[in-house]
Amino acid sequence: MSNGSLLTIILAAGKGTRMRSSLPKVLHPIGGRPMIQYVLETTASLQPEGVALIVNASQESVVLSAREIIPGLIPVIQEQQLGTAHAVLSARSFIENFKGIILVLFGDTPLVRQETLLEILNRFNSPSRPAAVILGMQLDDPKMYGRIVTSQDNQVEAIIEHKEANEEIRKIKLCNAGVMALDGNYAIKLLEKITPQVSNQERYLTDIVAIARTEGLKVEVVVAQDPSEFEGINTRQDLAEIEAKIQKRWRNIALEKGVTMIAPETVYLSHDTQISSDVIIHPYVNLGPKTVIEENVTIRSFTDIEGAHIKKGATVGPFARLRPKTILEEGVKIGNFVEIKNSTLGIKTKVNHLSYIGDAVIGEKTNIGAGTITCNYDGFNKWKTNIGSYVSIGANSSLVAPLKIGDYAYIGAGSTITKDVASKSLAVARAQVKEIEKGAVALQKRKSTQTHEKDIA
Ligand code: UD1
Ligand code: MG
Q1: Structural domains of the chain, ranges and CATH numbers in brackets
Q2: Which one of 28, 309, 353, 452 is the catalytic residue?
Q3: What residue's CA is closest to ligand 1, atom 8?
Q4: Per-residue confidence band for 450, with pLDDT thresholds at 50, 70 and 90
Q5: Cα 201 to Cα 211: distance, rounded to the nearest angstrom
Q6: Which of 99, 274, 277, 440 is the most exposed place for a label (fewest CB within 10 A)?
Q7: Ligand 1 atom nearest to 204, measured from its CA
Q8: What is the pLDDT of residues 47-102, one digit of tens each?
């Protein structure tokens, strides 16, 4: 930006009562992450000199979440929520003596794009030299949004809040999207002139427009192409709608990159999902945060994945669950009703049915039989299971960790393995079969007499 530096102020101190939640509104997740993180990430991409996050006194958790995106972020506590201008002024120490541009954003408007913000900032380079630039949107149904009043020569004259607007003003369809940028040379002076509303004692940031005009300063409006970018979240209904929109955005990006989704509307992605081309995703798949899927992977229906890295040509599901720190090397096959956690499976290893693999490292081309369980937890600690390459684990085996099974080892079905098995060994740990000739007949006789006696009794 040729205008020099940028300061962003993010307002998030509102109580969000309409969410009916004990969780602060801006921490409700969208696409697998708290909503506040979206606007922070967009902000960070503009490389501002400073970021002030306005929170209320009980929002320590919001600050911690924000620091995941901007580590050094210093919060500003707004003790009482006395309106958006009051909120901005609570960052007075940031604003005073700041001569760059001050960009005000809302924490509950996650879809705002960097491009739109750049367009606003660029207006300060125009010869008209505005003191403020606001963002407008044309809405057929302006709901409760503030209305932007313009003069005949297209100057922005004022923003009138819906609550304060008369019938004439309410007919205006150009609405205030909420994003505002101020020239730091005038900001403090203008903000201080905003007086509380008679109706609710709130100081409205939007009043700054009319004040700037009386001071002979200019205000411009950038009209947004896609109003849905500025939808704020106030209710759970809004949350669900925005989630649907963001999912659609991400799915379309994936489809464009060469991913096949048989029923895209049933596939859920996260903000950081990475999927390569020629991946096939069957209906009803949920991809939680930190998931990487490489080329030619197939994910079958009803599979839930989080924090897993699935390498080329692997297949997963149906009905599989991959939990954090799972790494599937190339060509691995994970079948139905299999859960894997914190484990690495080597090239072409198979776990095809009904298994739990946790805290394990498995080599290449090993076959884990149906119903195998790594017993990784003794009620106190988690233990590792180490299985080599070319191993065959028989069905219904319990592998009690800590445990090492060497390459080419063979575990008999139904074994409970409690000590290490050397490479190339065969291990069987189960009771011997005892066969009693004609025993079934004797048993049947005994049972039927017992039943008879019972009946008589
Ligand atoms: C605001 C605008 C309105 C615009 C709409 C767009 C004002 C007065 N009105 O109305 O013109 O059409 O956004 O969505 O600005 N906040 C604080 N401290 C406060 C009050 C609010 O931090 O004391 C925060 C809220 O947490 C929220 C943001 O400021 O993130 C906006 O406040 P909100 O009450 O939602 O304003 P709206 O009534 O939506
Ligand atoms: Mg709002």
Answers
A1: 2-230 (3.90.550.10), 236-427 (2.160.10.10)
A2: 353
A3: 204
A4: confident
A5: 18
A6: 440
A7: 8
A8: 999 999 999 999 999 999 999 999 989 899 999 999 999 999 999 999 999 999 99
